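Hi support team,

I submitted a single chain yesterday and got back a structure, but I'm not sure I'm reading the token output correctly. Could someone confirm the output below corresponds to the sequence I sent? I've pasted both exactly as they appear in my results page.

Thanks,
R.
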Amino acid sequence: MANNDDQFKKVISHAKEYGYVFQSSEIYDGLSAVYDYAHNGVELKKNIRDYWWKAMVQMHENIVGIDASIFMHPTTWKASGHVDAFSDPLIDNKDSKKRYRADVLVEDYCAKIEAKIEKEVKKAAKRFGEAFNNDEFLNTNPRVLGYQEKIKTILSRLGKSLEKEDLADVKALIEELEIACPLSGSRNWTDVKQFNLMFGTKLGASAETAMDLYLRPETAQGIFVNFLNVQKTSRMKIPFGIAQTGKAFRNEIVARQFIFRMREFEQMEMQFFVKPGTQKEWYEQWKETRLKWHLSLGLGKDNYRFHDHEKLAHYADAAADIEFKFPFGFKELEGIHSRTDFDLKAHEEFSGKKLQYFDHEDNQSYVPYVVETSIGLDRMFLAVFSNALVEEELENNTTRTVLKLPAVLAPTKAAILPLVKKDGLPEVARQIIDDLKWDFNVIYDEKDAVGRRYRRQDANGTPFCITVDHDTLENQTVTIRHRDTMEQQRVNISDLKSIIKQEVDVKSWLMKM
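Hi R., thanks for writing in. Yes, this is the structure output for that exact sequence:
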């Protein structure tokens, strides 16, 4: 676990040092769990958003996008159930005075058991060498099976207790597992209580007439209330989807793990409207489609897994998470939910307006069912960034820090480096930039020896370094260096555009789906 903690600390410090993520309002000592995306971070975030949007909207004729307001009529949140039921179970430690999410304490306990399973796997892999079969070991080793059964029993009980709102049993489970406060080591706990996560605000010029509003805790409701408007104006036939990206706000009790759990965050969601009775088949299809999207980025198949929910939300008839292996273990990255017709029916009831679809083939009106895919953009950023950061041992006994971002997502696609700051080399480098910048985000770098500039661009995640030297003046060729392999080729300046495009083009990455 210590190694993973060290790796995570490196991720956080690298994100700051190389202009990806800063603590918000840091000069005033910052705000807890609020972060700003710096000059490189904002590009990476935009590229992830664009990659999702292209795959979700541009590549599907039956999916369109919207951008709904953050402010919504307060009855929206009554209808959606957020006013009455959008809460987390919290528990306080009487000695440290620290507040925790009760379910997270139990999940962290299970994560420690998972770490024991990983330890057993590593020991066995070392012992058996090439003959080691990972799946067989996980399915037959008595100790591992015991650990897995323990995790399943604990999470199943937690899910059922939360579903029944039996908070006394959640506390009993924490006590039975002898879970201690991570800060004080004390097991002196208060009762578990529910805590609503919505931020309240006001709309209006004076205190007397102001209307109580909420900052939206999710982007989905903006899609549901606009369902009919979008369907009619886009002339969509069921099945069809509405996609949206945007900010959401949750007053998290325990916001931690850097940008993994924040109070202000961005979601990328798509609500897919289907004929009642077909939702299970669409649910399975979207699970498969979304996993393929993740795998297209090449972050490693073993870093993903599905987790089916033990505890279903009151509106769902099926739900699963795509979990990713972050430096702190497998955690939720994306949710796929079969939401039934709960949302549209609730908004019909509270608004008094019909939100139905007339099916010309069946000659009948009905409230569609919904299959949702919802991914946290900030979590996706952290998944990509933490997976990319590696330290490599080189042949000359030195190490290099390299950010192996998928080239399609990298903030800067190429750095143009004049070998020296004279003899007309900077001018040629500037000409190359002026040509490439129409198609790619490129930068000019002339400070330090060329080797140090290579290292800096490696750590920055830049896929290509293009060096302009004295031969360039003679024959219009440059050296292009590939970040991941450090291989260098001599190429014509006129070929640069096609070489870079081949590596960074969205089409070639999405075609892997």
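A quick pointer for reading it: The longest helix spans residues 102-128. Let us know if anything else looks off.

Best,
Support desk
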